[in-house]
Structure formats: structure tokens, C-alpha cells
């Protein structure tokens, strides 16, 4: 009989006032809310400051890989997330004309890490679950609270945070989770530090599966949930089903044609987008014919920082603010969630509120996270090169190597 594995949820630590930190997390994105949950479970108090007027998440789908599904389960979120999760059967890597190069069985792969899953979500559902769990554990979340400045108090024991409204808040520990255009990163470094453009942009589409079900060739994408990657010259495409077949997520990754000094998100031109894929696997133009409007996102990265934390021990950073990566490994949010998990783990060990205890916790946190997140950013850059090869010997070599991943029976 097959053994049912499960990952147990952590119990919230109960601690006395002498060791309970007042933590301010800046940014209620996936990373900031994850950190809030983890720090609350470590027995501290958390206030989350969010610049937006309401708690919401833009974008479409998000893949959660086994590493981050494990983290979410330790935060006690499996029951709430299971309602929204789609569990795709396999990953298919295809050439741009639609030829199957290799497949990976997700269920068999997840079984190597018992109790974990490959999950696909609508971002809004994942985000709302994180928000609900943080609030359930006692987080205070404030919207319309944009952080303008940070000051470390002379005693080094606390930070003060100034909002654009003029309000000033004191905290034992400040956690910057304010995303790729991070203000806190610049304040910590002490100089402007814009993200680095990668030369690619993403069109992000959400299609209604009702329209797809009318065409048998497209209907199979819905009835048999799989994650598909098509790789072609200078571009690739990714798609998968969301909410158990209600919606279809599609991302197109192409050369960046957006004005260099303009906004990083713009309304796209559907005809221009379709033209870029007109000669690809005929199922892609068919899918794109169902799209009426689209937005495009410039893709930038963050190469990491020498140090993620202030020497006082009163301020650290996580998520895209530190190590934004190309989404080509579907791991940016996963890395932000892991950051939060490790930070909470380190803060669960502190015995008092002294600068020495906080410094030690932040040093261990950073040492655990730096190498791994830098590796993911670099690997994302390599995937950009590999996914976008022109047809020719290098592409043939890539495909040959990809075939080493066993194709499940039946393919
Ligand atoms: P954000 O989500 O950007 O959150 C930052 C928050 O801080 C925002 O709410 C913002 O309003 C707030 N804020 C900003 N400045 C301030 C301020 N001064 N004061 C107060 N609040 C502030 N990752 C995956 O793991 N899997 C995927 O499948 C995946 N797919 C992707 C597809 C695309 C096309 C893209 C672009 C990314 C994808 N990612 C994926 C990456 C993932 O979206 C990010 O890594 C993740 O959302 C980063 O979370 P974060 O909390 O660090 O930042």
C-alpha cells in the first residue's frame, strides 16, 4: 500500500515580552506576506506596510514548485490552498514548431520529495491565502502606507520608518520586501540602484477555457492539465491551466521593444503580439486569436547585494528587492517565500531583543540565502540564452541534452 506523506504545519511559538520583537515588513506582496507568516509563527509581532490602496495582486498565473509548496505547508496553508491549486500532470518542452523534445512527470518528480507538490495558482488566490493566513496569525496590515525613509536609531536597537504621510513608526526589526523597484534597497545602499533590464519582455494573457473547449485541439490543454514550454529563436512561450480548468494562463517572452525610459508595464498591441508567433506551432496562433487585449511587462533582474542587512541588526531585506530573477525557472516568488521561511526560522531562535541576537539571526539568514538566490538569478540568465537559441547545431545539442530527462510511458 502506498504511504501517504504529509508535511506538518508549525506551531506558533509563545514567547515573553523580553524576547518578542516588533517587526515591520514593508510590502504586502507574496514575499512580504510570507515573511509576516513565518515571523509570526516565530512568536513575534508583525505590522505590514503596503503602499497600494488595497491588498490585491496583479498578473495571471504562478507556478509553485516542490520547494515552495513545502514552505507553504509548514505555514499551515495546505487546506486553504488546495481549494485553488491545479496539479499539472507533466512538463512538456517543445520546439517552436510544436515538436516534443522531452517531458517530465511532475507527480513522479514530486514523489522524490515526499509530501510536496507542483501547484499552479491564479496569483490573486495565492496572495489572498497568504494575506488571510497572516491576519489569522495576528498580523496588522496597513494599506496606503508608502515608506519614504528609514533611520537607524543611535542605540542601534531599532529603526524608525517615515511614511509619505509624515507618520513615523518605530520597530525592533525592519524587513524590506518592497519588490523589484525597491526604495528600501536604495536607502540601505545609500545610492540609486535601478534594476537591470534583460532585453526581454513578457506578454501575460488569461484566456477563458469556455472558448478553448469549442476547439478539440485546444480543449486537450484544459482537460489534461500540463505545463508546456515552446522554445524558439529569440522567444519562448509558456502555458498552463488555472483553477482546475476555469482559466488558461499564457506567457509570451520576446525581445523588449518598450521605450527605455518609459513605464515598465504598458498595454500591448494584440496584432503585434500575434505577428511574433504566426509561424509557431499552429496551436499558439489559435490560442492568441482568443485574446482581445494584453499587457506587456519589461523583464528586469537584480544581481544581489554585498550585504542584505544593516550592520546594526535592525534592518534586512528579502525577495525581488534583493534578487529579482528572470521568470524562466518559475522561481522568483519561490525564492521570496524561502527567504521568509529562513528569516522566520532564524528569528525563532533569538533569546532576547539585543542587537547581538538580531545580528546573529540576520547573519545566519543571509548566509543561508545568498548563494542559493544568486545561483537562481544566474541560472535564469542561462535559461534565457538556452530557450532562445536560433535553429542550428547549438539548438540541436540543447535538445539532445534535454532528452536525457526520461519521457514518461505513453509519449
Ligand atoms: P512584489 O510582489 O513586487 O511585492 C512588493 C510589494 O511592496 C508590492 O505590494 C508593492 O506595492 C509594495 N511596495 C513597494 N514599494 C513600497 C513602499 N515604498 N512602501 C510600502 N510598500 C511598497 N515566480 C514564481 O515563483 N513562479 C512563477 O511561475 C513566476 N512567474 C512569473 C511570471 C512573470 C511574467 C513574472 C514577471 C514573474 C514571475 N515570477 C514567478 C516572479 C514573482 O512574480 C516575483 O518574484 C514575486 O512576486 C516577488 O515578490 P515580492 O514580494 O518580492 O515583490
From TrEMBL:
Membrane spanning stretches: 21-43
N-terminal signal peptide: none
Database matches in InterPro entries: FAD-bd, FAD-dep_Monooxygenase_BioMet, FAD/NAD-bd_sf
Keywords: FAD, Flavoprotein, Membrane, Monooxygenase, Oxidoreductase, Transmembrane, Transmembrane helix
Pfam families for the chain: FAD_binding_3 (PF01494)
Domain FAD-binding: 21-378
Superkingdom, taxonomy of origin: Eukaryota
GO molecular function (one): FAD binding
Entry keyword Oxidoreductase: yes
Presence of keyword Lyase: no
PANTHER family: FAD-BINDING DOMAIN-CONTAINING PROTEIN, MONOOXYGENASE
Family per similarity comment: Belongs to the paxM FAD-dependent monooxygenase family.
Record-given protein name: Probable 2-polyprenyl-6-methoxyphenol hydroxylase and related FAD-dependent oxidoreductases
Taxonomic source organism: Phialocephala subalpina
